[in-house]
Amino acid sequence: MSHLVTVRISEDSATQRAGRAGRLGPGRCLRLWAAEERLELARRPEMLSADLADLALQLALWGGPLRWLDAPPPGALAQARDLLLGLGALDAQERITTLGRQLAGSGTHPRLAAMLVQAGPHQALACDLLALLDARDPLSPEQRHEPDLLPRWQALQRWRGGQRSASDRALQALEQLARQWRRRLRVAQPPPTHTDPALLGELLALAWPDRLAQRGSGGRYRLLQGQQAQLPDSETLAGAAWLVAFDLSGRGADMRIRRAAAVDAGWANAWVAARAQTERVLRFDRASGSVEASVQTRVGRFVLERRVVPIQPEDAVLPALLQGLAELGPAGWPFDAALRQWLLRVRSLRDWLPDAGLPDFADAALVAQIEQWLGPWLVGARKLSDLDADKLRQALEGRLDHSQRQLLDREAPTQLAVPSGRSLRLRYRENEAPVLAVKLQELFGLADGPRVASGRVPVLLELLSPAGRPVQLTADLRGFWDRTYPEVRKELKGRYPKHPWP
Question: What is the pTM of this model?
Answer without folding.
Answer: 0.63
